[in-house]
């Protein structure tokens, strides 16, 4: 249960239907650099502030009862940034794990990392493996961290995994269907995101969960990630609840099958 910590949160929580929350929320945490720039601070100061935002959103999502939260932390394209920034981000991640893992574990959260882990620095990989082992049996919220993640890379890896297992089985080549692809993605076993949030106003998906967001509701806010508050999350959830999801049909209350035309 999420206890409001100020009047804005309390007012927003009243508008939220806790029975109709998205099962899976995915967030493109963007705008750390701009946040720092506006304060005449180095970009890395923005990343530090971004970690604080991640902490509060993880904790409040778990308290709200969201089943899965996926955070885009580092893309396969982010290696194009200056070495010093990449290095800082990797160190920040380890620092975050050392400090926050006990809290994550105590809150019954299960950590899952998705992306090409083999290309991450050894120490980072080691810490992530330990964290996933420690929290592996937790039954609360699944916290999915996308690290060295790319949606196209994920699809390439899935197709290659399908080919490999076909080869190993020695039988005829399988007929690929949607379920088979979903089952070979890094996110196998997770529901697809219902809500995709992007902060800092950019109208693009930047190679994030390309397959999984097929029918996600998209919410873009101008708020920069370090400024994203618990209230901002609740606002996004309220907006999600106003959307009418149609999945290509005509929506609730309208006849949409067996050739019956909608009025
Ligand atoms: C998002 O903030 C964090 C990462 C991509 C690691 P940015 O660093 O992209 O911030 P902007 O987009 O430059 O403001
Ligand atoms: C997306 O943000 C990746 C993460 C949030 C980790 P970017 O800042 O890297 O995306 P672009 O470059 O604006 O598309
Ligand atoms: Mg950015």
Write a brief caption for the model.
By secondary structure, this protein is α/β, with parallel strands linked by helices. Helices cover 43% and strands 13% of the residues. The protein has helices at residues 7-15, 32-38, 43-64, 83-106, 122-135, 151-169, 178-183, 230-242, and strands at residues 24-28, 68-75, 110-114, 142-149, 195-198, 217-220.
Record keyword descriptors for this entry:
alpha/beta, 263 residues, Undecaprenyl pyrophosphate synthetase, binds magnesium ion, binds 3-methylbut-3-enyl trihydrogen diphosphate
Describe this structure in words.
The protein has 263 residues and is α/β, with parallel strands linked by helices. It has a domain at 21-150 and 192-243: Decaprenyl diphosphate synthase-like (Undecaprenyl pyrophosphate synthetase, 3-Layer(aba) Sandwich), CATH 3.40.1180.10. It has eight helices and six strands; from the N terminus they run αβααβαβαβααββα. The protein has a six-stranded parallel β-sheet, with helices on both faces. Helix 2 packs across helix 3 and helix 3 packs parallel to helix 4 (83-106). The protein starts with 6 loop residues before the first helix and ends in a 21-residue tail after the last helix. The relative contact order is 0.18. The model has no long low-confidence stretch (mean pLDDT 96).
């Amino acid at each position: 249960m999420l206890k409001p910590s100020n009047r804005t949160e309390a007012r927003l929580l009243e508008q939220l239907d806790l029975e109709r929350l998205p099962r899976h929320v995915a967030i493109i945490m963007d705008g750390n650099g701009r946040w720092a720039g506006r304060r005449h601070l180095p970009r890395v100061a923005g990343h530090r502030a971004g970690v604080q935002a991640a902490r509060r959103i993880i904790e409040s999502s778990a308290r709200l009862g969201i089943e899965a939260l996926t955070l885009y932390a580092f893309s396969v394209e982010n290696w194009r940034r200056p070495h010093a920034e990449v290095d800082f981000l990797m160190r920040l991640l380890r620092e975050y794990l050392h400090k926050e893992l006990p809290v994550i574990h105590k809150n019954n959260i299960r950590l899952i990392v998705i992306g090409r882990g083999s290309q991450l620095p050894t120490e980072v990989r080691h810490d992530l493996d330990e964290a996933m082992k420690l929290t592996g049996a937790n039954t609360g919220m699944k916290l999915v961290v996308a690290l060295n993640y790319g949606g196209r890379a994920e699809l390439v890896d899935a197709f290659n995994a399908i080919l490999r297992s076909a080869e190993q089985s020695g039988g005829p080549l399988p007929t690929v269907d949607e379920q088979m692809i979903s089952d070979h993605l890094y996110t196998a076993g997770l529901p697809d995101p219902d809500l995709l949030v992007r902060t800092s106003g950019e109208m693009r998906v930047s190679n994030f969960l390309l397959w999984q967001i097929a029918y996600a509701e998209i919410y873009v806010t101008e708020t920069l990630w370090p400024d994203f508050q618990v209230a901002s999350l609740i606002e996004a959830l309220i907006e999600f609840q106003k959307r009418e999801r149609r999945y290509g049909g005509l929506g609730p209350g309208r006849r949409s099958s067996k050739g019956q035309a909608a009025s």
